[in-house]
Amino acid sequence: MTVVLSRTGAAVLAVFALVLVALGGPIPGSASAQTTDEPQFLQLDIDEVTPSAVSLTSDPVVTVTGTVTNIGDRDVEDVWVRLQRAQAIADSATLRSALTLDQAGFDTVGEFEVVSDRLGQGEREKFTLDLPLRSDLVPSLNITAPGVYPLLVNVNGVPEYGGQARLDDARFLLPVLGVPAADEVSTDESTDTSGPTSLGETSAEAGRKDFPAVPPERSTPVPTTVLWPLADRPRIAAGVPGSATEPVRLVDDDLATSLAEGRLDGLLRVAEDAVENEEQVANAMCLAIDPDLLVTVANMTRNYLVVADPADPTGDAHPGTGTDAAIAWLERLRTLSAQMCTTSVPYAQVDLTALAETGSASLIESALDSPTEIIDSTLGISSVASVIWPDSGVLTEKAGAMIAANGPATALLADDAVQKADPSAAVVRISGVDGLTAGLFDSAAGAALAAMGDEPQTPSYVPDSSRYTLTDDSTTARLQDALGAIAWPALNSSSESAPSAGPNSVVLAPPQVWSASADDAARTLSMVSTLMRSGLATVQPFQEMVSAAAATGSDPVASLLTYPEQAITDGAPASVVHEASAQMPRLDGLEDAFVEDPQAQLTPSAYTAPLRNDMLRSMTLAGRRGTDPDAAAAEAEQRATQAREAVDRMFESVTVLAPGGVFTLTSEQSPLLLVARNDLPVGITVRLHVDVPSAMDITDIGPTQLPPRGSRTLTVPAEISDSRKIEVEFALTTESGLPLGSPTQVTVRSNAYGQVLAIVTGCAGALLLFLAGRRLLHRFRGEPDPADEGYGEQ
User: Fold this and answer.
1) Which of 453, 471, 426, 576 shows the shortest CA–CA distance to 511?
2) Which of 433, 382, 381 is nearest to 407 (CA)?
3) What pLDDT, on the 0 to 100 scale, is given for residue 660?
4) What is the C-alpha to C-alpha distance for residues 536 and 715, in angstroms, rounded to an integer?
5) DSSP character for 503?
6) Which UniProt keywords apply (predicted)?
7) What one-character-per-residue DSSP string does 28-97 give?
8) Cβ-based neighbour number of residue 181 at 10 Å
9) Given this model, what pLDDT does residue 11 score?
10) How far apart are CA 440 and CA 451, in angstroms?
11) How far apart are CA 419 and CA 347, in angstroms?
12) At what angle do helices 475-491 and 443-450 cross, to 10 degrees?
């Protein structure tokens, strides 16, 4: 069962407040975490944190700006806010759970600042909080060493008919890469600053306190790799087979915007800027491209259509508007991929656990083997082809065995998706799956990166204790969490085996469909760049990480895969997996029956590929961990149904036609004439299956090729030994026995008499021979034939 915690600050129930007032009891200044059924009065959002990451050159004061909004059903008086800090994160596992701490855990506090004397319903008010990092004279954050610190902004107020209470809070991480130097001078009016002190200093100098800079430990910079995903949810309309002339159909035209000035444009632009201006960062990056996105964009570079109703993929459609954007984006991607590491992800971010359950060899090949070919042929490059990155970040043993079925393979998994013998290991050999090794990415950073943007998600590998409602936080707060998670390994790297030590290398892996804005994505790379420039991190090319993982294949120490229950909840719906398992043998059998024509524009594989890809798209994990997983599941089921209906139509398009009237055979061995029709755009080899009674014998005519969108007359030798009417059923099948079209019932009537006619004819012939022989005998003896008596007298 999934546990979701609320990070919204606790609101005091109005009824509870009234009871306390009536009883004369004290009204607490803060409350424990609220439950989801409590009313909310105020909402606090973080708008900006300055500096977003503290460094040796930063201002020694942290400034937080935000907004308080009255979202309740009554006015709130005496709205105050203050900034609080918890202890530095000591273990990567608490990078997420520290954000769910009770307010009491944030025990370093600043002073309350007034936001508003009265905030009416629907009103909002801005605020700014300033707190020095260190001070002996005024409240401060008391940060004396580098680290990653959880911060909290707390808002108190007095709702009408209630008492003072903590009405909301907002939490975020503050990475401190180094504590800057600072000094402060006492402003105490009782201090005489006019004369020298006994030590020869002036009183003003005696009131000055210097705080020297505190640099980070740089002895063990952490090797860092950054995956840069370019993926999207499936957009091609389902249930439409391939065509040599028809334009591709999309379910919507959202990609036109995304490629021109939206999410995918921004992610590509940030990567381009890194190549141009940040050589170290670019060398640490690797583009991870979904081949389904690439196929879609490539089709958009030509004329394409957008369906009016995704539930009717073959119905009305209008021309798409993103052709120019697709051409420009794809050309930019070709240029960029030629300059930096590029790899592929499984087709359409398919659920590898579900894929393994189907057991379909052709589906597995399309999902895991074809992506590299698609990437390389479309972009004109040689991509890194020796690693599989499941979108969920986790694997079952069955899925692992599927990956390694054709030889040693490497998977890229979350570091908590395996039980590691060595806590600091970044590459491991997987126990129980021959030939499978794994490179591990930072799960805490991955979770924080997944929470960024306007469509935040919680990865399946995040434990229940660290799951909470992401939309309770502002995008700024979630960006801060990501910056802190990125910085933590570099600030805690160590060659010693200690619980607080970071891994010996770090892979940063956002979700494959990453909703971060261009600005926020650029700030994550800026953090990586800062870590490298400050000596806290070094470049680890993706290829080196993959090679290191592959080299662990002979490691005597192995790690066990762990598969969280949440991954089952987040996985492809069981109905979709069942549909794919049922339809793939039919589609494969049909493709095997198609005729390969070197002169034809449309090949059998090109014709069936879209439907095979539809099966993969129906098992996508895109959207399954977002804010509306039910809608994603419904879309997957609709896609699977449409693919099945398309396969059904393909089978029904090859059939034998019923002749009009009744077949009349003029002899017992007259042939039957039938017409087999193929409405598909590719040729197909069929066999005629006949269901006849014992009185009729049909000769097998063997395999027959039907031309594309054409028909052929079938001459079927038949032998019948009865003159009655006979009902015969004809049907077409593939050579493997898959039924095509619908059976046809034919009534056959023969004029042949069969055995009765033979007996009658034989008896008549025998009688004739007998009579002729008798006459000849009488003539030979010279005797008159008794049969001639009286003949001459008439």
Assistant:
1) 453
2) 433
3) 67
4) 81
5) -
6) Membrane, Signal, Transmembrane, Transmembrane helix
7) PSS-PPPPTTS---EEEEEEEEESSSB-TTS-SEEEEEEEEEE-SSS-EEEEEEEEEE-PPP-STTHHHH
8) 14
9) 34
10) 20
11) 28
12) 160
H-type alpha helices, 207-262: 254-261
Q: How far apart are CA 419 and CA 417, in angstroms?
A: 7
* Residue 179 burial class via C-beta count within 10 angstroms: exposed 0-12, middle 13-18, buried 19 and up: buried
Amino acid letter for position 68: V
**Do 66 and 95 touch, CB atoms closer than 8 A?**
no
Q: Is 749:662 a contact under the CB 8 Å cutoff?
A: yes
Please choose, from the candidates 242, 262, 245, the residue with its C-alpha nearest in 3D space to the C-alpha of residue 253: 262
Query: Could you tell me which of 401, 408, 6 has the C-alpha nearest to residue 170?
Result: 6
Helix (H) or strand (E) holding 721: none
Residue type, 283: N
610: which 2 tokens?
């879209």
Fold for domain 654-750? Immunoglobulin-like (2.60.40)
CA distance 684 to 616: 25
Q: If you count them, how many residues does the chain have?
A: 794
CB 559 within 8 A of CB 430: yes
Which tens digit of pLDDT belongs to each residue from 613-661? 999 999 999 999 988 999 999 999 999 999 999 999 999 999 998 776 6
Residue 175 pairs in a beta bridge with 148
Following DSSP, what letter does each residue of 627-682 receive, concatenated? S-HHHHHHHHHHHHHHHHHHHHHHHHTEEEEPPSS-EEESSTTPPEEEEEEE-SSS
Least confident of 10-24, 32-46, 344-358, 565-579: 10-24
Tokens of 601: 């524009």
> Is pLDDT at 91 greater than 50 in this prediction?
yes
Q: What pLDDT does residue 200 have?
A: 44
In this structure, are residues 679 and 685 in contact, taking their beta carbons and an 8 Å threshold? no
Buried b (16+ CB within 10 A) or exposed e, 42-81: bbbbbeebebbbbbeebebbbebebebebebeebbeebbb
CB 753 within 8 A of CB 737: no
**Helix (H) or strand (E) segment spanning residue 270:** helix 263-277
Close Cβ partners of 24 (under 8 Å, ≥ 6 residues apart) = none
Strands 409-414, 436-441: pairing is parallel
502 near 490, Cβ under 8 Å? yes
Q: Are 517 and 266 in contact (CB under 8 A)?
A: yes
Phi, psi of 137 (to 5 degrees): -110, -30
Beta-strand relationship, 222-230 and 285-289: parallel
